Amino acid sequence: MNLKQSIPPDFSGFIQITSNNEPVLFEAFGNRDLPNQIKNTADTIFGTASGSKTFVAVAIMKLIEEKKIGIDQPINQIISYPLPNIDPGVTIHQLLNHTSGIGDYYDEDELTDYAELWEDFPNYKIRKNSDLLPLFIDKKMTAAPGEKFQYNNTGYVLLAAIIEELTQQPFDSYLKKLIFEPAGMSSTGYFSLDRLPANVANAYVYDEKLEDYYSNIYSIDAKGTGAGGCFTTLKDLERFWQVFSQGKIISKQAVHMMQTTQASDYYGYGFWIAKKNEHPFPYMQGHDPGVSFISSYDPVSTLAITIMSNLGQDVWTMHKAFSAQFFENDEFVEK
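^ that's the sequence the OP posted. Answer follows.
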């Protein structure tokens, strides 16, 4: 087995692979600070982009278990501010599995680059969920609730808003108390780009015209929201998978619901669902300018693969290549 042959020579980031709970590959590549040539290490903190939707979904499932909301409850019964263009029948279930039909502020059919959002609306204004309201409040429904799966960032911003309505605290503070602190994820959090802690990898975007890299600080939200933007480390993610899978954050029944297809054939609640030799397993993934991330855990084989890049590189092709080396006649299918 030659795993390193699947790693591009210019890869910058971190790769962790464990099988049967034994480390197979745990290695950093490239630099967290390009101009100063400061290398990525085992303790480097990386962005996860949309991968952190999983944490929001876990928090919602906890509130459901506590009977503070219902899975099929219409969101207009929970959110206090008016949402005039959103169908009043949209439910928590439909937000979680991307079938709400709500107009998305980042519609990938209209925009090809997340950075385009900030051409007319400065990204430094985005520091909490409500700051995104002007970007979607006037958007019309794109489909009837429950009609079809369409990946939707607005839906997870609204889920984070629901967390804030019910807990009366910022959603990231609630996630810290519910997930990060109990799981020992001491380096994980939603950090402002202008107040990053030590050891965070700067993320870079390649300028093809100038043939050089530039920082993504003007390309993404100044601070993460329910749609994404959490920072974490490989070790913290390993702790999350272990504690979460053991039912220590939410019940094992709720874990199973999140990791069972709830929309189309490849999405649960906050998790994408892949298939390997006909048995499904969950993964988290995200992509922003300068950021790419995927983390999977197969509870049957106990194969765990996490790849993070601070150059926005193709972590998905690497993930497939690694996975194929562990399974003969592999039928790995991911969206």
